[in-house]
Design brief:
Blueprint (H helix, E strand, L loop, with lengths): L1 E3 L5 H11 L4 H10 L1 E6 L4 E11 L2 E8 L8 H16 L3 E8 L5 H6 L4 E11 L10 E4 L5 H18 L8 H4 L2 H9 L4 E6 L2 E9 L2 E7 L8 H15 L5 E6 L3 H10 L2 E13 L2
Parallel strand pairs: 4-5, 10-11
Antiparallel strand pairs: 1-2, 2-3, 3-4, 5-12, 6-11, 6-12, 7-8, 8-9, 9-10
Length: 281
């Protein structure tokens, strides 16, 4: 039976998701707070959940999780059918994206048989080693006076990798240059850090709980050790917040970043793939 998710399902959903994924509980809660969610039950318990979120016109994201002990029983297919029905009722057009583990199970085959094409892959990494030496680089908390320089630098830093797998917009400056995003930066300033060399803004590090969400270095300053210094600083900052592990992610194919994390001692915890399906107009 498929029915609407309700808050009483939360403990069972978290337990089910974490059987097959390293996703922390607060991330599961965050998804459920934003997505329209349906659960599959068989009278003995909750066996799967399908989540749908329309992020903007023409862009829809789907998450489907099935209890590992009950895969290959048609549960994922039933949930996908229910989510697809919701999309049709909405008259949705554009692109549907999904994210799934590609290092475990056959999710790739499941989605490929339904018309999804691979988009890009990310390794999720974990560092549990000792603290690093204090950084030699001038790293300061985010300050609003640097907003314009910061968003241009960040946009330029991510341009090559976004262009490589056609993640649009390739340049995110225009997307970020809004008062709404500026206010969001102000609210998150305790988790954002800017790196300077000789007065020039050369890079940034951004944290989300125990996750290093962003390490970015301006293209003309890459290859000078700034990325390493920022990563070591971020790990130490998480240690100061009593996190025993530091987590991050890297796009597979971003060889510079992959080499850096390998050398610092990060280990891969899982690999996720994104795939896309084009909906007819």
């Amino acid at each position: 039976m498929i029915r609407d998710y309700n808050p009483e399902d939360l403990p069972r959903v978290i337990g089910m998701v974490q059987k097959g994924d390293t996703k922390p509980a607060d991330e599961v809660v965050e998804v459920l707070s934003r997505y329209r969610s349906l659960v599959f039950t068989d009278g003995r318990g909750l066996r799967g959940i399908g989540c749908l979120h329309s992020e903007k016109p023409g862009e829809h994201n789907v998450r489907i999780y099935v209890d590992p002990a009950h895969r290959r029983e048609g549960i994922g297919a039933a949930l996908w059918g229910a989510v697809l029905a919701d999309l049709r009722v909405m008259g949705a057009a554009g692109r549907v994206t999904v994210k799934y583990r590609s290092d475990k199970g056959d999710s790739q085959g499941f989605y490929a048989s339904r018309g999804f094409k691979p988009w890009y892959t990310m390794d999720y990494l974990r560092y549990g080693g000792p603290r690093f030496p204090a950084p030699w680089l001038d790293i300061r908390p985010y300050d609003d006076q640097h907003f314009q320089t910061y968003i241009r630098m960040r946009s330029d830093a991510f341009f090559p990798v976004r262009q490589s797998f056609d993640h649009k917009p390739h340049r995110i400056y225009e997307q970020d240059n809004t008062e709404e995003y500026r206010q969001a930066c102000q609210r998150s300033r305790e988790d954002m850090f800017l790196a300077f060399d000789g007065g020039d803004l050369v890079g940034c590090a951004e944290l989300v709980k125990d996750f290093i969400d962003v390490i970015a270095v301006a293209p003309r300053h890459q290859g000078k050790g700034y990325g390493k210094a920022l990563t070591e600083f971020a790990v130490n900052a998480l240690r100061d917040r009593c996190h025993s592990n530091a987590r991050t992610s890297v796009v597979v194919g971003n060889k510079k970043a992959q080499t850096l994390y390998d050398r610092l001692g990060f280990e891969r915890s899982q690999t996720n793939e994104w795939a896309c399906l084009k909906l007819p107009n």
